[in-house]
């Protein structure tokens, strides 16, 4: 008895198929019907050939031979047409299903917290979202339907062979079981190679993506040799696994050819014996040979389907592992956020990216509604971490952060991040239209509002120069945009939503002299009627702040009203301004 050895529980296969194939039920029904009709035609054609040969050897009329020939040609053309249509429907089903799965995986990955994204390179994530899912195309398009179809084809052939001779039928039944058993044994041997191959492939593309993005830094720091050394190290690790995987593939192929040769020899030998004893006609011998050859196709398909399955097994496991990854940041039950500016309170907040490393230590500050907090500190002092906690990219290990006396952890993440504008130093431009780049693909924002925002922050002339207005396409690299224009686009994004809080990680390195005044004016408008946290890089911006927070090694060194610090000769901020000592470093 043939027994399938699934690496994954059968119910998981069926659950995956049910989820992504159910919406295409009628297409699958048509596809299945076409396959069944195609199988019927394959079983009928050898009978027509037998009729033709026996009629020819018995000196039948020419009309009978012509009729048989026309019938054979008609069935052959019909079978090819059905196969073509079934192939098209199968491919379409596979791509629609994998695209839905790809969408679900992408949505899940985007909802995972920063801890996940810090520990996985973009390349490795792309390999899972694209490479692994592509490996499931055949699984979704036709795997189980073809599996059933091939069984029906083999069953039909065996029944027809038994109808001619129990010896032929028995021999071919044993042949099928033996062939499948041998192929399955080889598949079990080769499966681990394919699992490891997918893992190393993911690591390689992750490495490649990461270092291609940082080519400039690699060259500037003379690290090219180091990068190439790691590159060849991965290739040396990849090669033997890839060779092993394809050798196992070749082993299955060679074994299949040997099995088919034995099968053909067996059928010809038994047929010759029966013909010598007068039990079979010439047409019947050819029909038996044809059916034996026809058995090659479903067995070969079973072999390739088993190869597809072992690739699918590895991909399904990796996709399942990804989908089972739960975000550490749990969405809140939901509270109603008030309109306008918010007050913000950090209560005994401590945080560290690693278990044994603390970046922020017992931070206690209160930012009044509508005020501006200037955050100062050397690189690595915890400034950016301080801001990220407010967006719940991470949760504190101790303490809490409250907005208008409501704990961040009680809020819906989507609503929270919609009401907090975050302007980073690195402005991300998408391969999309100007409108989509400004609204972040929110089609509910009217064009008139977008144009008003652009004119309000000083991008009116730039907008007028766009060849297709808001529908002008931008490149992901941001080519064609000056540094100042890119920064102003990030400001415009904040104005698109009714943000009550703005975090400005001021990007001094991206400013150019031409747009300096536009940037200053945009910042002034950005701060109006909003609570703002400014990670300052210029003294002119710091002067806008109502309060000053100085961080050092994650600890609050100084925190007070700016006017109090400026008038206090003992304050650290006063000394920095007075002497200029360390001010450049603290604003770096």
TrEMBL record:
The UniProt entry lists membrane topology as: Multi-pass membrane protein
The molecular function GO annotations come to: ABC-type oligopeptide transporter activity; ATP binding; ATP hydrolysis activity; cysteine-type peptidase activity
Assigned keywords, A-Z:
ATP-binding, Cell membrane, Hydrolase, Membrane, Nucleotide-binding, Protease, Thiol protease, Transmembrane, Transmembrane helix, Transport
Q: Which residues cross the membrane?
A: 26-45, 65-89, 135-160, 166-183, 243-266, 278-296
Domain ABC transporter, by residue range, is 344-578
Name its cellular compartments: Cell membrane
Where does the ABC transmembrane type-1 domain start and stop, copy by copy? 34-311
Chief localisation class: membrane
Q: Which Gene3D superfamilies match?
A: ABC transporter type 1, transmembrane domain, P-loop containing nucleotide triphosphate hydrolases
What Pfam families is this protein classified in?
Answer: ABC_membrane (PF00664), ABC_tran (PF00005)
Give the CC-aspect GO terms: plasma membrane
PROSITE patterns in the record? ABC_TM1F (PS50929), ABC_TRANSPORTER_1 (PS00211), ABC_TRANSPORTER_2 (PS50893)
Protein name per Swiss-Prot or TrEMBL:
ATP-binding cassette, subfamily B
Species of the source: Fontibacillus panacisegetis
Q: In the record, what lineage is assigned to the organism producing the protein? A: Bacteria, Bacillati, Bacillota, Bacilli, Bacillales
């Amino acid at each position: 008895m043939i027994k399938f050895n699934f690496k994954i529980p059968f119910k998981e296969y069926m659950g995956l198929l049910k989820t992504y194939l159910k919406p295409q039920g009628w297409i699958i029904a048509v596809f299945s019907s076409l396959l069944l009709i195609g199988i019927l035609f394959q079983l009928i054609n050898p009978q027509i050939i037998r009729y033709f040969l026996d009629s020819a050897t018995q000196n039948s009329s020419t009309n009978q031979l012509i009729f048989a020939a026309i019938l054979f040609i008609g069935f052959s053309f019909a079978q090819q047409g059905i196969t073509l249509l079934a192939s098209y429907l199968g491919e379409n089903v596979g791509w629609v299903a994998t695209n839905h799965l790809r969408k679900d995986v992408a949505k899940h990955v985007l909802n995972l917290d920063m801890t996940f994204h810090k520990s996985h390179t973009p390349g490795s994530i792309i390999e899972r979202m694209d490479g692994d899912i592509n490996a499931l195309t055949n699984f979704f398009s036709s795997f189980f339907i073809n599996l059933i179809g091939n069984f029906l084809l083999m069953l039909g052939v065996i029944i027809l062979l038994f109808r001619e001779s129990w010896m032929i039928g028995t021999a071919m039944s044993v042949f099928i079981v033996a062939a499948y058993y041998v192929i399955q044994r080889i598949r079990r041997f080769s499966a681990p190679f394919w699992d490891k191959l997918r893992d190393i492939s993911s690591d390689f593309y992750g490495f490649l993506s990461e270092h291609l993005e940082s080519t400039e830094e690699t060259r500037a720091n003379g690290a090219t040799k180091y990068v190439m050394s790691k590159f060849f190290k991965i290739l040396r690790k990849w090669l033997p696994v890839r060779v092993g995987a394809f050798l196992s593939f070749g082993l299955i192929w060679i074994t299949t050819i040997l099995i088919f040769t034995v099968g053909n020899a067996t059928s010809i030998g038994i047929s010759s014996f029966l013909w010598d004893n007068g039990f079979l006609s010439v047409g019947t011998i050819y029909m038996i040979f044809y059916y034996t050859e026809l058995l090659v196709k479903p067995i070969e398909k079973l072999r390739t389907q088993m190869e597809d399955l072992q690739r699918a097994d590895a991909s399904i496991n990796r996709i399942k592992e990804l989908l089972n990854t739960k975000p550490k940041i749990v969405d809140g039950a939901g509270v109603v956020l008030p309109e306008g500016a918010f007050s913000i309170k950090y209560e005994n907040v401590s945080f560290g990216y690693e278990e044994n490393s603390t970046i922020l230590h017992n931070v206690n500050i209160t930012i009044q509604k509508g005020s501006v907090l200037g955050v100062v500190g050397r690189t690595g002092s915890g400034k950016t971490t301080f801001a990220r906690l407010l967006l719940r990219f991470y949760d504190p290990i101790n303490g809490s952060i409250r907005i208008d006396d409501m704990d961040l952890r009680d809020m819906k993440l989507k609503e929270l991040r919609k009401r907090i504008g975050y302007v980073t130093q690195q402005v991300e431009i998408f391969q999309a239209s100007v409108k989509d780049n400004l609204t972040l693909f929110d089609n509910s924002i009217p064009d008139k509002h977008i144009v008003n925002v652009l004119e309000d922050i000083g991008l009116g002339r730039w907008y007028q120069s766009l060849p297709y207005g808001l529908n002008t396409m931008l490149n992901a690299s941001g080519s064609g945009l000056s540094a100042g224009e890119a920064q102003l686009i990030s400001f415009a994004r904040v104005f698109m939503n009714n943000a009550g809080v703005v975090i400005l990680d001021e990007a001094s390195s991206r400013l150019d002299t031409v747009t300096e005044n536009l940037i200053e004016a945009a910042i002034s408008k950005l701060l109006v009627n909003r609570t703002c946290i400014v990670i300052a890089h210029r003294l002119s911006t710091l002067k806008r702040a109502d309060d000053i927070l100085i961080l050092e090694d994650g600890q609050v060194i100084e925190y007070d009203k700016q006017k109090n610090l400026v008038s206090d000769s003992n304050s650290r901020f006063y000394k920095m301004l007075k002497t200029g000592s360390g001010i450049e470093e603290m604003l770096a």
